[in-house]
Amino acid sequence: MSHSSKAHHTASHHDASPDAPDAPESPRTVLQCGCALPSEASEERRAVAVDPEAKARNVKRLRRIEGQVRGLQKMVEEDRYCADILMQISSVHEALRSVGRELMRNHLRHCASAAIRSGPDDAEPMYDEIIDLMYKHSR
Fold it and tell me: How far apart are CA 23 and CA 42, in angstroms?
């Protein structure tokens, strides 16, 4: 799958701080890498490739997280001790970060590497996407 045929589009992105509501919006190029291309059967975006073992691990983790969140909801409904709820929230955050790391690894291994190998037209926007993802994922 060649990234040179991938579509790019410009999206409106508000980069100003919330304290500056009158700041103009600037156009931003958003990379439509292989993992952002619609599949042939639908308009849904799909990954270039997904490691089956990683997918199985992520699905298992997400199911566990889903159960943890249901447990959190029950704790809140039962007026459980705030510190206990906060500890469980921390546990859910770490579990989600673990899934995010796995997804980042897959994105770098497949989608990003394909874009970078395809040449500067796809590589430059991919570099920007990677930096944005790293910044957002590290918060």
Answer: 37
Which tens digit of pLDDT belongs to each residue from 95-108?
999 999 999 999 99
- The CA dihedral of 20, 21, 25, 30, to the nearest 10 degrees, is 90
Among candidate residues 103, 96, 104, 107, the one with its CA nearest the CA of residue 34: 107
Residues 13-52 as b or e (16 or more Cβ within 10 Å = b) = eeeeeeeeeeeeeeeeebbbbbbbbeeeeeeeeebbebee
Tokens standing for 112? 């990003």
Domain parsing of the chain, residue ranges: 3-137
Residue with tokens 């970078």: 116
Task: State whether the Cα torsion 61-130-137-28 is positive or negative.
Answer: negative
Q: Which CATH superfamily is domain 3-137 in?
A: Metal-sensitive repressor, helix protomer (1.20.58.1000)
> Which H or E element spans position 29?
strand 26-31
What is this structure's pTM?
0.64
The rounded distance, in Å, linking the Cα atoms of 56 and 35 is: 18
